[in-house]
Design brief:
The protein contains eleven helices and 13 strands. The protein is of the alpha/beta class and about 325 residues long. It has a domain of about 220 residues: NAD(P)-binding Rossmann-like Domain (Rossmann fold, 3-Layer(aba) Sandwich). The strands form four sheets. It has a seven-stranded parallel β-sheet with strand order 3-2-1-4-5-6-11, with helices on both faces. Strands 7-10 form a two-stranded parallel sheet. Helix 1 crosses helix 8, helix 3 packs parallel to helix 5 and helix 9 crosses helix 11. The protein is globular. The relative contact order is 0.15. The protein binds uridine-diphosphate-N-acetylglucosamine. Uridine-diphosphate-N-acetylglucosamine binds next to helix 7 and strand 8.
């Protein structure tokens, strides 16, 4: 099966390309390189020993997308390409709505036109907001998004649901990712944040590498065991494998199927627990201070992963310690370059 991977040079996309190949799929990468670069393609090549087709295309460019769909006969699409910075989305909402939603509609139209049957969408646990009870299941009610970024994921899911309901001959799955961390164990691909990282683990590894002075832990007065926020941190390679499972499930489903799945480990850890694990597994001390809460942060969330375990036969295999070791090895590699 030939699979179009949009944003295939990005963090989750690149790891998914590697897993698709391992599982016998043929990935074709498109990326506009807005938040990634060509070196990632070299890393993918070194891991897999293959040079997958790559097109520098923006998913909002409907002409180029149609040309591509006419040329390559895809069997499925995994749509990663999107903007994802929560803070930036508050400042530039129209950029987020335009980029994340038009691209989605361009792709869905092309799929209907060129009879591409399988679609996997990158959604996020952000659609749950601060849930009333944890862990969250897929039927936990969604809450109004607390950022334009989060809203593009909620609206994206709704667009797909309504599109499938109209029987376009497409099947789809939205994967609600929890917090992806880590890197490929080869250290050939990993996360490449643009500028100052806003996510926790890249900030930690850059601080440990001496690129940043100190990490600020945002808030220690939350209602959790040590006062810091709780998240469900999932190794990016495990998350990548969930996309392979999603495609396999879609293949076995009948037309007009649509469903959503949480993709998390099912376990929550606090920010301080993650920092302690990072220090232990890598044998180093991290420079950090406790600061005020970050606006818009969710106090605690983690997945109930029964549905993805049972229906997709997928479960997270790697530990948070492995993810933090891989993240650190990747940081060492890119710092040395
Ligand atoms: C956020 C989004 C999520 C999105 C993800 C992608 C929300 C609620 N979540 O996840 O939807 O997919 O970004 O970028 O909008 N922290 C620190 N110091 C730091 C950085 C982070 O203490 O320097 C803490 C945060 O307060 C939070 C935890 O670490 O408690 C994780 O933060 P982060 O990595 O930014 O992810 P989320 O906010 O969970």
């Amino acid at each position: 099966m030939k699979i179009l991977v949009t944003g295939g040079a990005g963090f989750i996309g690149s790891h998914t390309v590697v897993e698709l190949d391992k599982a016998g799929f043929e990935p074709v990468i498109i990326d506009n390189l807005y938040n990634s670069n060509r070196d990632v393609l070299e890393g993918i090549k070194q891991i897999s020993g293959k040079d997958f087709p790559f097109y520098e295309i923006d998913c909002n460019d409907s002409e180029k997308i149609r040309e591509l769909f006419a040329k390559e006969r895809f069997d499925g699409v995994i749509h990663f390409a999107a903007y994802k910075a929560v803070g930036e989305s508050v400042e530039k909402p129209l950029n987020y709505y335009e980029n994340n939603l038009i691209s989605l509609m361009v792709l869905l139209r092309a799929m209907a036109e060129f009879n591409v049957p399988n679609f996997v969408f990158s959604s996020s646990c952000t659609v749950y907001g601060q849930p009333d009870a944890i862990p969250v299941t897929e039927s936990t009610p969604r809450k109004p998004a607390n950022s334009p970024y989060g809203n593009t994921k909620a609206i994206g899911e709704d667009i797909i649901r309504d599109f499938i309901y109209a029987k376009p001959g497409v099947k789809a799955i939205s994967l609600r990712y929890f917090n992806p961390i880590g890197a490929h164990e080869s250290s050939l691909i990993g996360e490449l944040p643009n500028g100052v990282p806003s996510n926790l683990v890249p900030f930690i590894t850059q601080t440990a590498a001496g690129l940043r002075k100190s990490l600020t832990v945002f808030g220690s007065d939350y209602d959790t065991s040590d006062g810091t926020c709780i998240r469900d941190f999932i190794h990016v390679v495990d998350l990548a494998k969930a996309h392979v499972k999603a495609l396999e499930l879609l293949n076995s489903e009948s037309p007009d199927y649509y469903d959503v799945f949480n993709v998390g480990t099912g376990e929550g850890y606090t920010v301080l627990e993650l920092i302690n694990t990072f220090e232990q597994v890598n044998g180093l001390k991290l420079n950090y201070t406790i600061g005020p809460r970050r606006e818009g942060d969710i106090e605690k969330i983690y997945a109930q992963s029964d549905k993805v375990n049972n229906v997709m036969k997928w479960r997270a295999e790697k530990t948070m310690a492995e993810a933090l070791r891989d993240a650190w090895n990747w940081q060492l590699k890119i710092t040395a370059e």
